[in-house]
């Protein structure tokens, strides 16, 4: 009787938990398989695709690490600079719209926002030709600059909405105290807007880290390649050579670690950052 | 907007602040579309600007079977993708929201974030080589094996390729959407929820009548993003399926047609024409979207 | 927060340093030749680790070693080998070639040559081929290192040579002796008809899969065999044992080669159309493929003993030979000849065992830009000289060197194919056989037709089109392609 009462009261909760657990399982199973396979030797994986490794081999990781190490650093380098650029320039621009009055202010703002409507893929050929003409092809800046430029509309939009929520009295108070515009920006606006800035940092970082298409076109010299490009090439060449996937799978695991580590270290900021943007909608 | 009667004091230093973004935007964001427009009337290739051929590219495009099939495909991908994606993410957000225990809810939320951290290229590769791998070693084939269905080609089967693409990745997590929906739900005032309980509404009714309308802002955002993203994202085609098995064009989308024409067949002019058409389609749909959703508010 | 900031600054700094290094690498009078070391059989890049292990079965650094040896002989140059190859990916190479930023020497699929004509991508090598190769004693002309009919495969439709091929590619069918025995197949099939019979036996008498392939090699053999009777009539403009592009156009024009016979128009009957017959013959074997064979992992299934036969090149034989799961006896056989048992149109069969030259390396416009053409040519001469070539190719254990001698270490599993090839070469002299690819329409009519042909065959396998429909649509495509070729190339038809 107690049990039935319990069930009746909590059946909703139990069903909810059940579905959640199923979804969790579905989310982690492919990742679990990836992990398992990365420790198997080639012949082990061929005879036994779904089972646990007979021997837990670290050879794959050794091989994978040597192969993708330089590309990991390339990706980090590009993504960090992109992120800094987007946040910095985006905040400067948003601040200008919020703090100052100037002619054609609204028109200029809509001009920037309207760029959001042009899907990047549309202009890919001209952008490519442009990057060539500027001599930026085969150069990390050929990836960084277009990426920053491409993110400005979104960053401006996001930050302007957030900045306008900051009370003008606060900003005026600082000016009265003798602060220059830049000091108001740096010491008042930025600290107050930390959550939304974190949102932008995370979105920009993840976007830059995952970018495959444009870097694959621009970065022709292979020592400049980013991680996604390297992973794709590594997988096909390793399979062509050995018929197996062990080392590439190890490479996938390694390449997931940076974001995972950042998340584990800064999970609170991560979550707040991602969700605070939601409130403004 | 009320007219400002008194003189506004203009702060021209704003232009200094706008300089960094504008110099970048002018070069990398405004110049390319204009160039694309010009390119679309020529037969340029990568080596340089070709001859002016007026509307030939557009004529070729609008009489091309491949194009219409791609448009058909992208419409399906976007609509189904958005329905599946938003449904699944709102579902997950609701699941987490309605858990009584805040601690378990936080814990699960934490766990569900982990799949997002895997780079998107890696997800595609995992799906290609582990989940939807052909033959006996793919997870999907093993699962349908339990139902005694034979191994499928998934990405390389003309009929299954589109479905395989839609099912790649974790639709219920879909990047950060579920977090944003969850936050949206959590910002619903308690009083509203309590009131609905008192009115005798069960869970489903509450979701339909209260939660969803209050999530309108987020849904609108994801619809627009889904549209723009759906038109742009060709990673699957570039990395896995190409335009489709054989000559079927089963997975071709306009953006991929553009990419192939530009970089494999070296026809920048034709590719630019495709680009302009995609742009116009986006423009029309966005304007339509804004008008419709503004009206609803 | 501060800590993260410091960490980030360090990484950025490190990145900046790393970038600096690259830019200031090679100054002064030393010219760098960048090489993309891809290959048809295996890539020549140095493997990251040199100790063999199961994760690293083929440690290799011979190309790098040879590069250093060459540099010692030619101090004005430095060779930089890319760590990974682009594997001829057009999406990467075409933009590079347009910008003159491709590697000075790059690997690429040979069939693209004709579609890139007139774009100034590659250096024409005809003059160099006539010069002596100083690394080979007694050599009068570099091209003497090659068999003329095989070298002819590399000629572009404008009569120029843009590639240097480094090896020969062994091709054949690998078979599981135990499964064949279980199916009652006593002898290795020597003809296509016997082959099809063996496939049928395996399917009916055992529960194993019979056969599958990864590329349409066999279809090249079948085409050559079915059309070798028109070879003498067609190979007249440049007599080299092969019908090249212009010769195909001429043969089409004169009706010698007639894929459009009864194939165009709404009521086409395809009667007497040999090209249609050819397509049907190629599909006779796909009947026995496993279900969903495009994603069937041939390699894994063969090593696990589930697949009786699989089409292979040196690459796959190499992979399979070291696989620890192979616990059965296996062998390699050449493609069984097509005979009149199967079709009336079976003429002089193709040479077996080796599919001619492979691994074409191009010298690109980057070399012209950087002034490294002479150096690149010299390096290629060095690599094709037998004493180096034998090491370059032999150590990779997948291909056959251009001119192996008695002391060259050929991997044992390739020896059978090499022997048959050597034998068959005698038959070519007496016109009983033809060289590989002597009649191969879908290699000669350009990359677009090549893609269309392969994809159309896939359509038949996917059940999307019937052979009849494909024959008709290909006929139309051929007609259009021939037209386009005529316009593009402005052939001097008086010479026809």
Describe, in plain words, how this protein is organized in 3D:
The complex is a heterotrimer of chains A (281), B (297) and C (496). Chain A has 13 helices and no strands. Chain A has 281 residues and is an all-alpha fold. Chain A is flat and about 75 Å long. The mean pLDDT of chain B is 83. Helices cover 67% and strands 0% of the residues of chain B. Chain C has a domain of 198 residues: Periplasmic binding protein-like II (D-Maltodextrin-Binding Protein, domain 2), CATH 3.40.190. Chain C is built from 20 helices and 9 strands. Chains in contact: A-B, A-C, B-C. Chains A and B meet through helix 1, helix 3, helix 4, helix 5 and helix 6 of A and helix 1, helix 3, helix 4, helix 5 and helix 8 of B.
Gist?
The complex is a heterotrimer of chains A (281), B (297) and C (496). Chain A is mainly α.
Helix/strand order of chain C, N-terminal first: HEHEHEHHEHHEHHHHHEHEEHHHEHHHH
Question: How many domains would you count in the coordinates of chain A?
Answer: 2
What is the strand tally of chain C? 9
CATH evolutionary superfamily of the largest domain in chain A: MetI-like
* Assigned CATH architecture of the largest domain in chain A: Orthogonal Bundle
Name the CATH class of the largest domain in chain A: Mainly Alpha
In quaternary terms, these chains amount to heterotrimer
What percentage of the residues of chain A does DSSP assign to strands (E)? Answer: under 5%
DSSP strand tally of chain A: 0
Could you give the order of the helices and strands of chain A?
A: HHHHHHHHHHHHH
Q: Kindly report how far apart the N and C termini of chain C lie.
A: 79 Å
At the third CATH level, what is the topology name of the domain at 30-168 and 356-414 in chain C? D-Maltodextrin-Binding Protein, domain 2
CATH topology of the largest domain in chain A: MetI-like fold
Number of helices of chain A: 13
User: Which parts of chain C are unreliable, with pLDDT below 50 for 5 consecutive residues or more?
Assistant: 18-26
């Amino acid at each position: 009787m107690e049990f039935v009462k319990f069930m009746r009261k909590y059946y909703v909760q139990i069903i909810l938990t059940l579905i959640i657990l199923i979804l969790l399982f579905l989310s982690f199973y492919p990742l679990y398989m990836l992990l398992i396979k990365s420790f198997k030797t080639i012949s082990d994986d061929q005879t036994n695709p779904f089972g646990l490794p007979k021997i837990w081999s670290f050879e794959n990781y050794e091989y994978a690490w040597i192969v993708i190490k330089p590309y990991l650093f390339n990706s980090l380098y590009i993504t960090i600079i992109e992120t800094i650029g987007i946040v910095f320039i985006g905040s400067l621009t948003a601040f200008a719209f919020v703090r100052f009055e100037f002619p054609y202010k609204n028109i200029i703002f809509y001009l920037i926002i309207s760029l959001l409507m042009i899907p990047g893929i549309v202009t890919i050929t001209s952008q490519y030709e442009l990057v060539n003409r500027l001599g930026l092809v085969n150069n990390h800046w050929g990836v960084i600059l277009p990426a920053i430029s491409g993110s400005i509309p979104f960053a401006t939009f996001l930050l302007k909405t957030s900045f306008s929520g900051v009370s003008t009295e606060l900003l005026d108070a600082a000016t009265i105290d003798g602060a220059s515009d830049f000091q108001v920006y740096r010491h008042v606006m930025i600290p107050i807007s930390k959550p939304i800035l974190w949102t932008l940092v995370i979105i920009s970082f993840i976007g830059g880290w995952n970018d495959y298409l444009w870097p694959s076109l621009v970065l022709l010299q292979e020592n400049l390649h980013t991680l996604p490009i390297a992973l794709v090439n590594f997988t096909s060449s390793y399979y062509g050579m050995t018929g197996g996937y062990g080392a590439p799978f190890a490479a996938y695991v390694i390449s997931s670690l940076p974001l995972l580590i950042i998340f584990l270290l800064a999970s609170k900021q991560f979550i707040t950052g991602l969700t605070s943007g939601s409130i403004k909608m | 907007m009320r007219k400002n009667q008194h003189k506004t004091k203009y702060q021209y230093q704003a232009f200094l602040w706008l300089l960094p973004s504008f110099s970048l935007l002018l070069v990398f964001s405004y110049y390319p579309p204009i160039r694309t427009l010009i390119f679309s009337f020529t037969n340029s290739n990568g080596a340089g600007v070709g001859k002016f051929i007026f509307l030939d590219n557009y004529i070729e495009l609008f009489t091309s079977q491949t194009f219409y099939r791609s448009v058909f495909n992208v419409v399906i991908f976007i609509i189904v993708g958005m329905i599946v994606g938003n449904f699944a993410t709102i579902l997950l957000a609701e699941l987490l929201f309605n858990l009584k225990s805040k601690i378990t809810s936080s814990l699960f939320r934490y766990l569900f974030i982990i799949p997002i951290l895997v780079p998107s290229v890696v997800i595609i590769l995992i799906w290609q080589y582990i989940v939807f791998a052909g033959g006996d070693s793919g997870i999907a084939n093993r699962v349908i094996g339990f139902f005694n269905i034979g191994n499928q080609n998934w990405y390389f089967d003309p009929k299954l390729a589109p479905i395989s693409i839609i099912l790649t990745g974790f639709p219920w997590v879909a990047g950060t959407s579920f977090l944003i929906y969850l936050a949206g739900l959590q910002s619903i005032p308690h009083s509203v929820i309590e009131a609905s309980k008192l009115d005798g509404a069960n869970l489903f009714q509450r979701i339909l009548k209260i939660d969803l309308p209050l999530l309108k802002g987020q849904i609108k955002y994801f619809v627009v993003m889904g549209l723009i993203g759906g038109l742009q994202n060709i990673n699957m085609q570039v990395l896995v399926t190409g335009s489709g098995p054989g000559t079927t064009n089963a997975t071709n989308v306009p953006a991929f047609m553009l990419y192939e024409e530009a970089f494999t067949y070296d026809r920048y002019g034709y590719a630019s024409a495709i680009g302009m058409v995609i742009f116009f389609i986006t423009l029309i749909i966005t304007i339509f979207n804004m008008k419709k959703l503004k009206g609803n508010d | 927060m501060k800590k993260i900031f410091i960490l980030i600054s360090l990484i950025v700094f490190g990145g900046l340093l790393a970038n600096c290094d690259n830019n200031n690498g090679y100054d002064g009078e030393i010219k760098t030749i960048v090489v993309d070391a891809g290959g048809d059989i295996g890539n020549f890049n140095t493997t990251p680790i040199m100790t063999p292990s199961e994760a690293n079965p083929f440690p290799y650094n011979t190309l790098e070693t040879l590069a250093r040896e060459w540099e010692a002989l030619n101090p004005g140059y430095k060779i930089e080998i890319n760590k990974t190859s682009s594997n001829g990916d057009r999406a990467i190479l075409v933009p590079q070639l347009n910008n003159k930023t491709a590697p000075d020497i790059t690997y690429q699929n040979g069939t693209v040559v004709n579609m890139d004509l007139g774009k100034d991508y590659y250096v024409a090598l005809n003059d160099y081929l006539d010069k002596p190769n100083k690394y080979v004693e007694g050599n009068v002309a570099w091209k003497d290192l090659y068999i003329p009919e095989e070298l002819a495969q590399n000629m572009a439709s404008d009569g120029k040579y843009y590639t240097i091929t480094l090896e020969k590619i062994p091709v054949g069918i690998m078979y599981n002796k135990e499964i064949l025995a279980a199916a009652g197949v006593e002898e290795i099939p020597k003809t296509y008809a016997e082959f099809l019979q063996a496939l049928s036996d395996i399917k009916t008498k055992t529960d194993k899969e019979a056969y599958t392939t990864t590329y349409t090699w066999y279809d090249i053999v079948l085409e050559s065999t079915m059309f070798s009777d028109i070879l003498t009539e067609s190979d007249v403009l440049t007599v080299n044992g092969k019908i090249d592009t212009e010769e195909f156009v001429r043969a089409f024009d004169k009706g010698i080669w007639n894929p459009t016979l009864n194939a165009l128009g709404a009521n086409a009957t395809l009667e007497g159309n040999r090209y249609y017959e050819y397509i049907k013959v190629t599909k006779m074997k796909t009947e026995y493929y496993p279900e969903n064979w495009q994603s069937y992992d041939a390699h894994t299934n063969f090593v696990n003993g589930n697949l009786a036969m699989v089409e292979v090149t040196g690459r796959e034989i190499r992979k399979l030979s070291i696989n620890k799961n192979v616990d059965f006896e296996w062998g390699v056989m050449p493609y069984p000849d097509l005979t009149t048992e199967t079709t009336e149109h079976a003429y002089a069969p193709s040479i077996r065992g080796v599919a001619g030259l492979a691994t074409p390396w191009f010298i690109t416009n980057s070399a012209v830009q950087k002034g490294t053409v002479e150096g690149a040519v010299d390096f290629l001469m060095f690599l094709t000289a037998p004493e180096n070539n034998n090491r370059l190719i032999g150590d990779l254990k997948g291909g056959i060197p251009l001119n192996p001698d008695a002391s060259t270490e050929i991997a044992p599993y390739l020896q059978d194919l090499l022997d048959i090839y050597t034998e068959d070469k005698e038959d070519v002299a007496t016109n009983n056989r033809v060289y590989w690819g002597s009649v191969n329409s879908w290699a000669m009519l350009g990359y677009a037709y090549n893609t269309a042909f392969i994809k159309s065959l896939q359509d038949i396998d996917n059940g999307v089109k019937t052979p009849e429909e494909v024959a008709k649509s290909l006929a139309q495509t051929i007609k259009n392609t021939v037209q386009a070729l005529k316009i593009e190339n402005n052939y001097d038809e008086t010479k026809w």
